């Protein structure tokens, strides 16, 4: 490890600071750490006590001396020379530091073999400090199209580049022109820093560095959505440069002209057919959440329709399987294979509930209500099965009533009427089991949904359903949905409103026959 000496001269005072730097076998002298740059930006604050300046020098044998990169201010060279007279002993000098309005802020860095540079490049940063690079003209011209143009007819021994946004990275990028093992050096950096290097390399036309940065970004993991977005934005900017960015972009995009409909169908099928409870539960939540996020992304209506078709295809498959299982369970010798059939019924009912939830989120569940209301054979077989085998199927009916009550789906009047006629009685029969055995069952929400669904029908249909419910409620009590609020609304519509309307009509007629007084 070599050392770089940074000196600051302030009105007769000398402060020498040792800054560690690394030396590569190729002669690449790495720039000082970001801390050095940062400290040069800050003005020294006046101390309450006189500062102590420690100057320590140690004799070094001539044979052990090695060339080192000097990072000193030009106006400090004289001050450094004054310290050469000190011996091995420590010299402590106490003095009050005067206030200085403007501090010279300049760093000098030498690349390659010491004393062999043939041009100075001065980087002037926007932060108010500058860096002088002692470099080799042929190295810059061979690696950078920017320097090749600037230095082709440049006869002066120095070149100034002003308004550098990122001087620290600019110095590192110039240093990479001296580095043969660029990949190994980049491996020690993080993605954010490589993106900064890539930006400077693009400005300099440093093609080999840009290619190495792209190779790094193609292989390195991107942590988080924010970092991924930064990488993609930076890469897309390079597409017009003729640099091969496709390997990096392939991580986030595929060479296809249409959505992966088959892939979505395959994912849903894998989830539906899984027998591992925990994996099924977690992946159902993940897929449901991701499909919800997709709805917030602008897309063509055709892609949404295709997605709905895939889901409905799975719904029809599950309904067919459920009907077949009900038929098996209704047979006389069902007890011989009861356990696997009941397990499969539970699985298919859970699948249908999940698919219905997806459709309700996408506001596309009206067709599901039509399909479910027309499955009268399934409803007829429902009563022949033990309640422990069938009660989860009633969760599907309950979810439909909740959706209608919340306005998540708006099926036609005939569909709502048929749904209540076909599935309300099976739901009432399973209600006690739903309350005590289904953890996600919310009694108040379901009862409100059933009541609101009933109240959307014509008054005659409301009366028929309410009287049927009242008969069941008076027999089993809490084992039946409590629809008292809906019953009260129906009562007022049936008995109170006609009377109020009649009284209003009579009052209006009385007002019309009162003789008008002549003025």
TrEMBL record:
Q: Cite the InterPro entries for this sequence.
A: At3g05675-like, At3g05675-like_ankyrin, BTB/POZ_dom, SKP1/BTB/POZ_sf
Q: Which residues form the BTB domain?
A: 122-218
Cite the At3g05675-like ankyrin-like domain residue spans from the record: 263-497
Identify the keywords attached in UniProt to this record, alphabetized.
Ubl conjugation pathway
- Composition bias of kind Basic and acidic residues appears in 63-80
Keyword field contains Transcription regulation: no
Q: For the region Disordered, what residue ranges are annotated? A: 59-86
Per its UniProt record, what Pfam families does this chain match?
Answer: BTB, BTB-POZ_ANK-like
- Does the keyword Heme belong to this entry? no
User: In what pathway does it function?
Assistant: Protein modification; protein ubiquitination
> Among the record's GO biological process terms, what is one?
protein ubiquitination
Q: What does this protein do?
A: May act as a substrate-specific adapter of an E3 ubiquitin-protein ligase complex (CUL3-RBX1-BTB) which mediates the ubiquitination and subsequent proteasomal degradation of target proteins.
Question: Entry's PANTHER family?
Answer: OSJNBA0011J08.25 PROTEIN-RELATED (PTHR31060), PRLI-INTERACTING FACTOR G, PUTATIVE, EXPRESSED-RELATED (PTHR31060:SF5)
The entry's protein name is BTB/POZ domain-containing protein At3g50780-like
